[in-house]
Amino acid sequence: MKSSATKLTDSDDLMTPKAAPVRRSRRRASDRLSLISMVGFPAFLHIGLVWIPALLSVILSFTRWNGIGGVDNIEFVGIDNYKSITTINTEFVPALTNNVLWLVVLMAVSTPLGLLLAVLLDKNLKGGRFYQSALYMPVMLSLAVVGFIWELIYSRETGVINAALGSDVDWLGNQSINIWAILVAAIWRHTGYVMILYLAGLKGVDKSLKEAAAIDGASSWQAFRDVVFPVMKPVNIVILVITTIESLRAFDIVDVINGGRFGLELISVLITRNVGGAASRVGYGSALAVILMVVSLVPIISFLSTNLRKEQAS
Amino acid sequence: MTSPTTVSQIKNRNTGLWRRIKHANAWTAWFMLVAMAIFFLLPVYVLVMNGLKDPASAELSQMWRPPSTWSWGGFSEAWERLSPSMINSVTLVVPATVISTFIGSVNGYFFAKWKFKGSEYLLMLLLFGFFIPYQAVLLPLVRFLQWTGLYGSVWGLILTHVIYGLPITTLIFRNHFSTLPHGLFEAAKVDGAGPFRTFWSVMLPLSVPSIVVVAIFQFTNIWNEFLFAVTVVPNPEAQPVTVALNNLSGNFSVDWNVVMAGAVTAALPTALVYIFLGRFFVKGVTAGAIKG
Q1: Cβ-Cβ contacts under 8 Å for B52 (sequence gap 6 or more)
Q2: Are residues B164 and B31 in the same domain?
Q3: What is the rounded distance in angstroms from the CA atom of residue B226 to the CA atom of residue B161?
Q4: The domain that contains B244 carries what CATH number?
Q5: Which of residues 125-184 of A touch B (CB under 8 A)?
Q6: Rounded CA separation B133/B164 (Å)
Q7: How far is B159 from chain A, CA to nearest CA, in Å?
Q8: What predicted TM-score, i.e. pTM, was given to this entire model?
Q9: Of A280, A284, A288, A286, residue with least CA distance to A69
Q10: Which residues on neighbouring strands pair with residue A63, listed in sequence order?
Q11: What are the boundaries of each domain within chain A?
């Protein structure tokens, strides 16, 4: 009892299910309706809670407002906020550089490291569960705790690194190295995330595929490169997205360590200082947020749009 | 299954040299895992060891030594001070995780298997929402929640987390569902299953690793989230554990053993969830379930 009206995948008329004389079709129609509402309602809320606030931020970025008074206190100032950010604010360029550095380093180190660990763990080695838990441990701790632990590790007088190396380096105070020290902590935390996502991807690869490749005489590297990795391509997109997000939202670690100053500036820190602090400059903070948004959206849009469209075409 | 699967599978190619390379690989793999595990566990060691010290001996210069006298004092005080907010966190995180995993799976299914004209743009619109810095939306968000009357309540916070988690949960599920062979979907249709039935009885059972990953991911993130928590729920009595944990070290005289024990205590639920769900995770997809 299949009718052409119930063709699910390529019919464009999801919204108007054709009335079919079969009872099953009617059930499917109600199915569709509830499915659409289950997708539509969250999407609607998403617009209300994410997009509208974001658009408001864009509008606010062209204004001056202390955030306390009513809406009629808002004063339009054009691109003044952007001008003063890029010309006067001396912390802006270091913050932007650090954000980009954060992204690049997490991509270049955590991604391959996480993948490697996931591949190792996928082999069901002895004690694999233990290592898997150990590697995921940092993710379980809140970022504030992570910052606090690494503060102890890097401490000049009592830290374990100086004790082990017999050195006297001010890891977190020296402005030319502190961002790198923090990035080690960020990698430490982020790798567990990447590992678990890749591991889920690897577990999802049908075992018979790997076996078939093995029987064909492929080495494990070949089997991985030709069989496993292509299947895991969707996971790569997830990891790209999550890594970008992590580097955008990076805040707590530097906030705990020194409030995000003296070499540890991040855009998120500057935003918080302007929007939340005593001198509430909502317009200025919003402009910073918009810059961060644009910086992150550009690579993601270009990547996703080419990627999704390619998928669609295939 | 003690050795890598591929090794046993290609026995017929086991010339001496080949086996030796394989063997060396296994040792390197093992060595790497041990080294990484130490690197990853070192900070946790500090937390646990100092949490078990008495207040006098938990000082910064002794941080790396194990306690000379073991004491549960740190943990019991941390528990006393954190437990009310731990309960707040549970009532927040459990519903938020369940709802957001479920909605994410439905959305992922929709975007993977119900492609229609423009669906990829809708998905992209959803995804871009993920890249909006939290700090940028706080003020309008608070206004919106005040307007709906959800401001200050745990449901407001749940709603915020579910909606802000929607892009990533949808993306993970969508990407997973799109790797499932289309034939499965067609077969279910031919057998007369409606879209929900296909989703529930065919797609979801094949998605255990993704469900587990999303649940772990959301649980951990929401549990450790700070910014939304302090903003959306200003009442200290109702705030989650991250805020309370922050207050532990915020005092003038810091009892390091309490702070460290507190950090461990606050992380325990995420560890339990991970260990519990990880069980399903390791099993992976039942072998052969998706044979064309």
Answers
A1: B67, B70, B71, B72, B74, B75, B257, B261
A2: no
A3: 12
A4: 1.10.3720.10
A5: 125-126, 128-146, 148-150, 152-153, 155, 157-158, 160, 163
A6: 11
A7: 9
A8: 0.78
A9: A280
A10: A76
A11: 60-89+281-314, 93-257
Question: With an 8 Å Cβ cutoff, is A206 touching chain B?
Answer: yes
How many domains does one find in chain B? 2
| Dihedral angle over CA of B87, B91, B93, B97, nearest 10 | 150
Cα distance from B151 to chain A (closest Cα, Å)?
A: 13
**Over chain A, what is the mean pLDDT?**
76
Q: Are both B40 and B91 inside the same structural domain?
A: no
Shared-domain flag, residues B28 and B165: no
Q: Tell me the pairing of strands A63-64 and A75-76.
A: antiparallel
B132 in any annotated domain: yes
Q: Using CB atoms, which residue from B29, B138, B246 is nearest to A120?
A: B29
* Amino acid sitting at position A279: A
Q: What does CATH list as the number for A93-257?
A: 1.10.3720.10
Structure tokens that stand for A47 in this block: 């617009």
Q: What is the pLDDT of residues B126-152, one digit of tens each?
A: 887 777 777 777 777 887 888 888 888
Distance from CA of A21 to the nearest CA of B (A): 15
Q: Is this prediction's ipTM beyond 0.85?
A: no
Q: Which residues of A fall within a CB distance of 8 Å from B249?
A: 148
Q: Is the CB of B124 less than 8 angstroms away from the CB of A304? A: yes
Q: Which range of residues forms the domain containing residue B37?
A: 5-51
CB distance B166–A46 less than 8 Å? yes
